Amino acid sequence: MNTKQISEPKKDYLVCEQKLVYTLLMASAGMMGAYTYVLRGGVFCNAQTANVLVMAINFGRGDWLGGLYFLIPISAYLLGAFVSEILPSPVKKLGFLRWDTYLTIFEAAVLFLLGFLPLSVPHQVVQVLVNFLASMQYNTFRQAEGIPMATTFCTNHIRQVGVGLAKAIRKKDRTALRRGIIHAGMVSAFLLGAALLTYLCPILEEKAIWLALIPMGIVLTKLLRADLGTEHHMLDRKPSGH
């Protein structure tokens, strides 16, 4: 047993780094992904691997125009990463709220507005907006209590579950097993969010996206309480991974 680990004090994490916040964001992201797939054109907007792949397939088939179309969602995702990297510094100078909180407010506002767009609106409009939001969220929320995380897709979470199980079996590593369980919980939150929204899509139609505001609203409440109260003196402190 490592005595250094026993005596090492537990790190104090910001509210925006809490595992609960990440779990709620995963549930919301699952809803966004299901929404664009079920109601808005049958595409996944939370990540871009599929878009790059389909673009390459179109190019390989000689459909250059069809391939170039995918530059639109890819560019929206790129822009989201760019904006979320540029804005935190000037936002910090305001000294009122953290960037994470402003982003969550912006996400909630956009998702609320999307619920008013009828299904007759070109799907590309909604897809680009969700691409933009997903990119900013992914680039902003990076670590949950010291554990690297992605809040908009499941690939790395699933990988980490496998890694955790392997280390637990080979090395009896309880920490790796615990991390694997945490990642499995993130995947479960994403799955449950996507399943719930899919079930209600036929009933609520375009307004189904408002379901994503429930976990998003809980996150926003926690962030606002921290920024305006318990963590107001720590607005300059960067979350882990930044």
Automatic annotation (TrEMBL):
Protein name in the entry: DUF1275 domain-containing protein
Species for this entry: Acutalibacter muris
Keywords (A to Z) from UniProt: Membrane, Transmembrane, Transmembrane helix
InterPro entries listed in its UniProt record: DUF1275
Transmembrane segments: 20-38, 68-87, 99-119, 180-202, 208-228
Taxonomic lineage of the native organism: Bacteria, Bacillati, Bacillota, Clostridia, Eubacteriales
